[in-house]
Every structure is written in C-alpha cells, then in structure tokens.
Write a structure and sequence with these properties.
four-stranded antiparallel beta sheet, 264 residues, 9 helices, 10 strands, 2 domains, six-stranded mixed beta sheet, alpha/beta, disordered N terminus, Rossmann fold
Amino acid sequence: MAQGLALGTAEPIIVLEDVTKTFGKETVLRDISLTCRHGETTVVIGGSGAGKTTLLRLIVALEQPTSGRIIVEGENIVGLPERQLNRVRRKFGMVYQYAALLDSINVLENVAFPLVEHTDLSRKEIDERVVEKLRLLGLQPSVIHKFPAELSGGMRKRVGLARALMLEPPILVYDEPTSGLDPLTSRVVDDMIEEMREKFNITSLVISHDIASCFRIAHQAILLIRGGIVARGSPDELAHGDCDDARDFFAKSGVDLRATPHRR
C-alpha cells in the first residue's frame, strides 16, 4: 500500500458547508460540513439508513440540498441551472458496486460510452483512447470484443474503472465498491482504488460500510449516523478516539482491527 499523505495538507477539492436535505417532513441529512482534499481518499462510513446515498447524490449534483453550500473545485454548485450542473457532473467518475456494465454491448462500447455521449471525437480517436485506457489498467486490447458476461469479476471492475476515467475526471466516486465481496477480492478492489489515485492523480470519495477497507485506504474517515456526522479523522482516530458512537460502531463491526492492514 502506498505512502499516505499527511491529512489536511492538500488543497480542498470538495467542500460542504452546513448542508441539510429534507424530503417532505423527513430530514435525511442535517448540518453536514466536510472537506475532501486533492489526491486523498475520503471514506464515508455508516450503516443502512445513515444517509450515505443521499450525501453521494448531493455531491455529484444529482440532487440539490434544502440548505447549505456544496463547493466543487472552488465553485458553489447549489442552485446552478441544469446545463451548468451537467458540466459539474463531468468532474466525477462513478464506479458502481457491480461495475454497472451494459450486458448487451461489448467492452469497447461500454468504455466508449462517455466519449460518444459527451465529445465530438471521431470513432477512430474514441477507439484508440479506449484501448489505451484499458492498457493502462492492465487489460489487453483483445478484451474490447468481449461482453461483460465473459469477464471475470476483477476484469469487470477494471472495465468499469476505465469507463469512469474516460472523461479524465479529477474525482472518482465509489459506491459500496466492496459490498458482497469475499475478503481477498475486497483487498484487490482496495488496491485498485489506491492504484487509480496514484496513477491518475485522482481524488477518491468512497461510500462504504466496510471497516476493514476503510482502514486500508482512507486518509480521512467520516462516520455518518442518522443523517449527521458524528466523527471524522483517520480510521485509528475514530476507532480509538473520544467519540463513543464511533468507538461503538467500530467495535460492533466485528473486524479485528489489530489484524487489519492499515494505511501507512
């Protein structure tokens, strides 16, 4: 695992200030303030119903907050018209839990999709970029003719990453990337998250409930409980700090923290 950055030394790339989200009379998120810094990995952890998915949708501009500010690369995105929000959304590459590849088209078409939709590049240029990105991710050019059902789980993850990287976003967002995976495969996915951050100088935002993964990859961990942030800091600080809720959450995870590899 690569050397970690000193927490808080890099420039902010995502900043939330007093963000609240309500649906009708229900407050799903309340007074959320957080900072994600360039080149770091921030992991938002919490149980089911904590508000993680809503937080993710707000950050990537798929929802608007009821109140508060969301600043991405220095720009407040709250209240922007749809056309401007589409521009903001291109700053994020989304990596979904099961890669979310389209089964009816081959790898080439899956990975090319963002370029076809959002650029005026020629078909030849698009194909060349797809092959190059797959090569950078350790996949041979011959994989472009395969369909998702013909790929191993690891290959599907890398193809999903290639698609997320095609528009060269500064931020990669991972939605429960290790959910349902065995420990060995989870470790491989964690290594891939680190690899992407280092190779492409990317900021990573990970939504997860996987405590072991959090310890391996997080520069900053944020614990969300019932729509509010109850603790933030390094995973060690959350697990052994002054916040009773955080210590209890980590203790109930069932993960042996002494046997879990930590970010160095």
